Structures are given as C-alpha cells and as structure tokens.
C-alpha cells in the first residue's frame, strides 16, 4: 500500500507565493490568479474582486487538467503541462507548477496570450523554487486528507444554501 503524500506549504512559502501572484497580476492586468492543488483544492489567490466560485473553479480546473494528462497518455506524449480555454470575454490559462500544484489565470481578451505565456513560464520557475524550499522554521500549513474532508463539508454546505434559494 502506498501512502498519499500531502502538500505541505509553510507560512513563509505561502507569503512568497502571494507576493508573486500579486506581482504577476499587476504585470498581466488579469482578473484572477490562483494556486490550486492537483486534487482541486484552492491554496491561495490574487484577485481584486471576491470570487464566490473559487472552490468550484479549483475543482473543475484540476479535473480538466487531469483529463488533459490522460489525453497526453493516449497520444503517447510524456505530458501536457498547459491547458488553455478561450472564451468570448474571458480566457483561462492553467499551467503545471509541480506534481501537486497548478497555476490558474483568468484574463480578458485585451491581454495578449503570448504575454501571459511568457510571464507564466517565468513565474512557474520562481514558484517551483519557493515550493521546493522547506528551510523555514515557521509553522507549516498542510493540505491533506483532513483538509480535503473539511472542504467537502464546506462545499456541501454551499450547495445546500444555493439549492434552497
């Protein structure tokens, strides 16, 4: 039996990730940036507006990315590390940071896709270094099975509230 390795992010790492996301948001003038786990759990985000669908967005994005991984397998490709969806008003760009983390970006049609890809590639290199550095002594935040169960309860509550309206 294999044990599932939880995603461990220290307070210091989370703070550095937040700083990078806000800097990237300013550079790209995008609407929403988020780090999510490949299991579909939100980790952190940078958005000027409250986004009420963060849990759904994280979950569906991780599912779509998992499907993309399976497509790569079927096509005998080692992996696809990028997912892009183009809409009438909003574009969605998802890139793999590491085995457990995805970077999610939503932006308008006025933002050049090439600019998003360029800054995303640079940011991923920095995020990989941040997430690999566990040298800090600060308290660790753990995204694991217990966290997943509490998020499922929270999502169930949200759906119950929305269904009763």
Largest sheet: 5 strands, antiparallel
**CATH architecture level-2 label:** 2-Layer Sandwich
Q: Structural class, please?
A: alpha+beta
Helix proportion range? 40-55%
**Gyration radius, rounded:** 16 Å
Q: Indicate the mean pLDDT.
A: 82
**How are helices and strands ordered from N to C?**
EHEEHEEEHEH
CATH topology: Beta-Lactamase
Q: For the terminal residues, how far apart are their CA atoms? A: 44 Å
Q: How many H/I helices?
A: 4
Task: Report the uncertain regions.
Answer: 137-142
Record keyword descriptors for this entry.
165 residues, alpha+beta, five-stranded antiparallel sheet, 4 helices
Structural commentary:
- This protein is of the alpha+beta class and 165 residues long.
- It has a single domain (9-163), classed as Beta-Lactamase.
- It is 47% helix and 24% strand.
- The protein contains four helices and seven strands.
- The protein has helices at 11-28, 54-74, 113-132, 145-163; strands at residues 7-10, 32-37, 42-47, 82-86, 90-96, 101-108, 140-143.
- The strands form two sheets. It has a five-stranded antiparallel beta sheet with strand order 3-2-6-5-4, with helices on both faces. It has a two-stranded antiparallel sheet with strand order 1-7.
- Strand 5 (90-96) and strand 6 form a beta hairpin.
- Helix 1 packs antiparallel against helix 3.
- The longest helix is centred in the middle third of the chain and has 21 residues, at 54-74.
- It starts with 6 loop residues before the first strand and ends with a helix.
- Mean pLDDT is 82; it is low at 137-142.
């Amino acid at each position: 039996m294999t044990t599932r390795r939880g995603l461990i992010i220290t307070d210091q790492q989370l703070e550095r990730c937040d700083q990078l996301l806000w800097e990237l948001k300013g550079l790209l003038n995008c609407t929403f940036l988020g780090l999510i786990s490949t299991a579909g759990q939100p980790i952190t985000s940078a958005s000027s507006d409250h986004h009420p669908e963060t849990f759904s967005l994280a979950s569906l994005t991780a599912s779509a990315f998992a499907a993309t991984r399976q497509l790569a397998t079927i096509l005998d490709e080692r992996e696809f590390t990028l997912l892009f969806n183009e809409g009438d008003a909003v574009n969605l760009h998802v890139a793999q940071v590491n085995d457990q983390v995805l970077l999610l970006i939503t932006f308008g049609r006025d933002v050049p896709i090439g600019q998003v890809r360029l800054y995303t590639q640079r940011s991923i290199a920095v995020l990989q270094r941040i997430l690999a550095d566990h040298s800090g002594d600060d308290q660790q935040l753990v995204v694991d099975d217990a966290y997943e169960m509490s998020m499922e309860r929270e999502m169930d509550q949200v759906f119950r509230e929305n269904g009763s309206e």
